[in-house]
Amino acid sequence: MSVELVGYACFFLTMALTYAIMCLGLNVQWGQTGLFNVGVAGFVAIGAYVSALLTTPDAANRLGGFDLPMPLGWLGGALAAGFVSFLVGALTIRLRADYLAIATFGVAVTVQLIALNAEPVTGGPFGIGFIPRPFASLAGDPLLFNLLNLAVLGVVVILLYLALERLVRSPWGRVLRAIREDEQAARALGKNATKFRLQAFAIGGGIMGLAGAAQAHFIGFIAPDNYMPMLTFQVWAMLIVGGSGNNRGAILGAVLVWAIWAGSAGLVADLFPAGQQARAASLQIVMIGVALCAILLLRPRGILGEERVVSRHLGKFVRTRPIAASESSKHANS
Amino acid sequence: MNPQALMDGLITGAMIGLGAIGVTLTYSILRFANFAHGEFLSWGAYFALAVASALGAMSSALLAPIGPFSFGWALPIAAVVAVVLTGGLALLVDALLFGRLRDRKSTVIIMVMASFGAALTLRSLLEFIATSKPAYYTQALQIALPLGGGLRATPDQLLSLAVSAVLVVAVHQLLTRTAIGRSMRAVSENPQLAGVVGIEVRHVIRVVWLLGAALACVAGISAGLLVQIRPQMGLDLLLPLFAAAILGGIGSVPGAMLAGLIVGLAEAFAVQLIGAEWRAAIAFAILVLVLLLRPQGLFGRPE
Fold first, then answer.
1. Is CATH 1.10.3470 the classification given to domain A2-333?
2. Which residues from chain B sit within 8 angstroms of residue A97, using beta carbons?
3. Which of A286, A295, A327 to mutate to test the interface with B (most CBs of B within 10 A)?
């Protein structure tokens, strides 16, 4: 019994960590830079499909698989998603802020369509199976297997967290914040706002692709249904709950919202008769939607909120100052 | 190429155009891309379905087809009620969500995000109430009449084209010839200045929501009448709506309608070449082309 429980806890946490990676990617785009991406699911799907194509064994009925080692698949997935983000960003970032949102929504719809219809590449509605899983040779021992999978994702999340924290505190990260808070001032200092935004958008998209690849290899099977607009919405809810602009908040939000989601799914399964479950599942989505709107209205900072000061050099001087004043001005200019 | 694509394109295009007018008005006057606009189409269609079924249950005379059309008096009456109800829904969402965010001077992008949340909530709520099974206003079959030149259309399709044409002209007159239309254009130019010269900005915003929701409701009813009613119908039309609003130029009503027809025709002709399963990608391709070549749209002003 307790072994099963540990196994389930591992499975749950591993899933939550794949969402945490998506959340970290979204945090680079939205939290640090203020770029609104409504197509998270599309970028995650690109990463998942590219990695699956690169690493699965040769299949007769579709392109590939190329049977490459798993890390190459993850890298390929991340690069592909990053490249598509770069293209979308190059097209829209210089235009009005919400054109980017509309364009990313279009990317998600189109990626979904390609996954569904380009059968020779993506396997169509049946998706791609037999995606190699890390430590597959140990699958005979479920506990060890689950623990090792969790460890892999844990390491990925920690490395990513450390890298992003470093990036946020670097001159590059400070420029991003400067642009978000006051673009004209940043430009007066000679910073090319469009270029910095584009870099952040591509990096964030690449991280989402990595998350998609990691998730695909953890589950071992992907299909177009996994990448519905719902996924975008979940990731947004995670980031907003945890606190956008805060990498620890992104991870915390992912685990918390995933726990609520999994818990309410269990509740729906217990409370409703089999015939009504699909119907009741839409109530779950209503709940997340209301929660997102409520947080936007009531506590826009999320649980952890954004770290106001990221520069090591300024720390002593600024931290003592009340931050309420800058808080209210933040949302007025970006 | 099959000339029938021309007729199909015009009919879909008229629906997209009606929806796009609402998007373009909210966009230019409230200043954000409303991702929840598609849900007004679906809710409008379902409101009409509920009212029409209730009327039909009360008196079966209301279900007897009017002249050449497939539906009885229940549907037009229900449509009027549904327009009012959809307008009420839009005002409710504004009062609960967008209005509060506006009062707080939230940024554009927070509004966009809130509209994204509202869209998912409204859609899933509809799915919960009505289930995702497709529904129909009428089970009657209609024979398409030959119109000459190899074109065919059912009376229902011709009616929906005519209604769209009348509505576009009416909205255009409203915006260009009436006092409220002038106020709306003033708010879209500069809300602060409009307030200073005594325009009641809150009233203008209410009118924008009512107008956008009413047009969305009519578009939803005609989509439901000509195709089918599903909770996902608004989501499926959202990308074409945005593509049309941007192609027409944000704020331009004739532009939105013309661009809606262009998107509809492009979809109809492209589907002949590449297959119906790729329909949804056409709107995206148009969107990318517009953003690349003429980001201000056909009738928009460069920023």
1. yes
2. 108-109, 112
3. A286
8 Å CB contact of B120 and A107 = no
- Domain count within chain B: 1
pLDDT for the residue numbered A309: 63
pLDDT in tens, A310-331: 666 655 554 444 444 444 444 4
Q: Which range has the worst mean pLDDT, A89-93, A172-176, B141-145, B187-191? A: B141-145
Higher-pLDDT residue of A308 and B29 is B29
Q: Any residues with CB less than 8 A from the CB of B227 and at least 6 apart, and which?
A: B233
Q: Which residue has the higher pLDDT, B297 or A306?
A: B297
Please indicate, yes or no, if residue B255 is contained in any of the structural domains. Answer: no
Q: What is the pLDDT of residue A315?
A: 53
Interchain contact, A233 vs B295, CB within 8 Å: no
**In this prediction, what percent of chain A has a pLDDT beyond 70?**
92
Residue B271 in any domain: the answer is: no
Cα B107 to chain centroid, rounded:
25
Q: What is the dihedral of CA A18, A21, A25, A31, to 10 degrees?
A: 110
**Average per-residue pLDDT for chain B:** 90
Report the run of H or E that residue A202 belongs to, with start and end: helix A193-219
Test A331 with B131 for CB contact under 8 angstroms.
Answer: no
**pTM of the entire predicted model:** 0.87
Among all residues of chain B, which has the CA nearest to that of A106? B284
* Model confidence band, residue A334 (pLDDT cutoffs 50, 70, 90): very low
Q: Domain limits at B53? A: 14-135+155-232
Distance CA(B186)–CA(B194), nearest Å, equals 6
Distance CA B183, CA B186 (A): 5
Asked if residue B243 belongs to a domain, the reply is no
CA distance B79 to B161: 16
Q: Which residues of B sit within 8 Å Cβ distance of A?
A: 32-33, 35, 97, 100-101, 105-110, 112-114, 116-118, 120-121, 124-125, 127-128, 131-132, 235, 238-239, 242-243, 246, 277-278, 280-281, 283-284, 287-288, 291-292, 295, 303
- Whether A293 and B118 lie within 8 Å, measured CB to CB: yes
Directed axis angle between helix B108-130 and helix B37-58, to 10°? 30
Q: What's residue A60's pLDDT?
A: 72
Which pLDDT score, from 0 to 100, does residue A333 have?
41
